């Protein structure tokens, strides 16, 4: 379908929704089950944010299992920006009215031409926009 190249950049809040078994965990589980892992990517910023959230909750073992599942056994891509690209994050913060972490995700999604999947409504007013897991699942079911 896409020759192993990632298609979707999955935001921190999507991963945490599932990992912390929050309200929309089931829909995230459906999305992750439906999409091959090689079509998914996350930023290094997301990975470290997940680590922080899980460590604060004393979930170190669960974090290690997550890393095993998505990167070692799975094929989720891990994307980052070089130091020279960080100025684009600052510009994006100003242009799109985003905070740093959202602007970082935005710049990565644009740079790698990925569909951004998030529950964060802050992206609705940007030129990038976002897709929710429900929207992706709906689009996939209509194919």
Helix content: 40-55%
Largest sheet, strands/sense/barrel: 4 strands, parallel
CATH topology: Rossmann fold
Q: Provide the structure class.
A: alpha/beta
Per CATH, the superfamily is 5'-nuclease
Mean pLDDT score: 95
Low-confidence sequence ranges: none
Rg over alpha carbons: 15 Å
Number of domains: 1
Helix-strand pattern? EHHEHHEHHEH
**Any idea of the CATH class?**
Alpha Beta
C-alpha end-to-end distance: 13 Å
Strand percentage: 5-15%
Tell the overall outline: globular
- Please report the total strand number as a whole number: 4
DSSP helix count? 7
**Largest sheet, spatial ordering of strands:** 3-2-1-4
In the CATH classification, which architecture applies?
3-Layer(aba) Sandwich
- Report the oligomer: single chain
What does this structure look like?
This protein has 143 residues and is α/β, with parallel strands linked by helices. The chain has one domain: 5'-nuclease (Rossmann fold), CATH 3.40.50. It is 54% helix and 9% strand. The chain contains 7 helices and 4 strands. It has a 4-stranded parallel beta sheet with strand order 3-2-1-4. Helix 1 crosses helix 2. It is globular and about 35 Å long. The chain starts with 7 loop residues before the first strand and ends with a helix. The model has no long low-confidence stretch (mean pLDDT 95).
